[in-house]
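Incident review: delayed structure delivery

Summary: a single-chain prediction request sat in the queue longer than the usual turnaround. Root cause was a stuck worker, restarted by the on-call engineer. No data loss occurred. The affected request and its eventual output are reproduced below so the record is complete for anyone auditing the incident later.

Affected input:
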Amino acid sequence: MVVVAIDGPSGAGKTTLADAVATDLDCPVVRVEDLYPGWDGLAEGVRLLVEQVLEPLCRGEVARYRAWDWLASAWDGWRTVAPVPVLVVEGCGATVGRAGELAAVRVWVDAPTDVRKQRGLARDGEAYAPWWDRWAQQERALFGADRTRAKADLVVSTDLD
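Output delivered after worker restart:
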């Protein structure tokens, strides 16, 4: 299985790129945001991605993971992903640690902080505003310790200026 992992901070444009890549490759997308257990769950989401999705698929097994319901702040059922030749994994932490080791291609997507924040709030509404700084702090800690951007095979800037 070939994993194309698209990572970067919130609001960078990962979802847009992942959807385009998945369409071109005619393959499914796993969104890491479905695996984070809430606003303090970035690192835990990466662990769950590896254990519940990537490792089983790399062994040729069906992956089964719980999906997080952001509105209810609770787990909301199970999702399955059948083994496929190509998979796109998208989200903050998609290439961190073991997840990155299991990726054939690591893509880092970024834009200036003010652009990303504006996009994130436009996408998720003001409900995201109180969580922006808290989430960004987790991103900085996780990406910094892992040196995630430096390990990318491709770096994409989505700043249009």
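Verification: The chain has one domain: 2-157.
Action items: add queue-age alerting; document worker restart procedure.
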